[in-house]
Amino acid sequence: LGCDRQALNLSNRKDTSSLTKGPEMKTLLACILTLLVLRVAPADEPQTLPTKRVLLIGQGPDGHPPTTHEYRAGTRIVAKLLSRQPKVQTIVVSADDEWANGPMLLDGADAVVLFVSQGAKWIQATPQRLAAFQALAQRGGGLSVLHWGMGTKDAVDIPAFVDLFGGCHGGPDRRYKVLETQLELASNTHPIVRGVAPLKVQDEFYYQLKWPQPATKHEPLLQVTIEGQTYPVAWSWERPAGGRSFGFSGLHFHDNWKHESYRRVVLQAVLWTIGRDIPTSDRKSTRLNSSHT
Description:
Blueprint: H1 2-11, H2 22-40, E1 52-58, H3 71-83, E2 88-94, H4 102-107, E3 111-114, H5 119-122, H6 127-138, E4 142-146, E5 151-152, H7 158-165, E6 169-170, E7 175-185, E8 199-207, E9 218-226, E10 229-238, E11 244-248, H8 260-273
């Protein structure tokens, strides 16, 4: 503002002959340069952000009843939420059959959201597919997983998946329950849960999940109480070799996307995994209409 006034005063002078030299000319030039820097290239403008490509991996029906395990519809909702964010490009794919072009798509992505059937088994269906996920992690890519995307019936699939995503619902001892319960915050400080409100919800939650050992920089975000004991059902993980991972074991029922807290935690988790700042109390970023659900 001071420079604005100085430049205006100097430019309004009737006698401008003295402006071509001396301290007044230096002042004017300094002000012009300052204004150009402030107005043309502010540091926090969206155009300074690198574009991030988020690959959203869904599937068709897996035998569960309609309105449950709606992978394709769920990934479309996440894509809609991300579409409002600057410099985020989403690629929504249906990973059915052999998914032969999958490794190539992963090679071009900065982050993944995995929402498929038995995802821990699925990512290891071929050596090429697992290697592509591992390469994404090695270059610091973001990894997010939802519901059965973190699952496998076979214990052999657990270690490689945990190394990538930081949690797994796997093996013959896996635990899950459909219930109405209070979904509570396990953390009040993590950026992913900024603006997320506790709520009573009907969902199927996986619990007693398998975690990395040791679980360094691994933080529970949401929790539920089942049979008198509290269990984490969402987490964040800053992987030891670099990069970030997130998981949420809810979202069995597609109808739960209607909850603003569900949409917010998933949106903010994906943004966190790609290193973006989390918007503060921005309800527009999580708004959906009926056509999206």
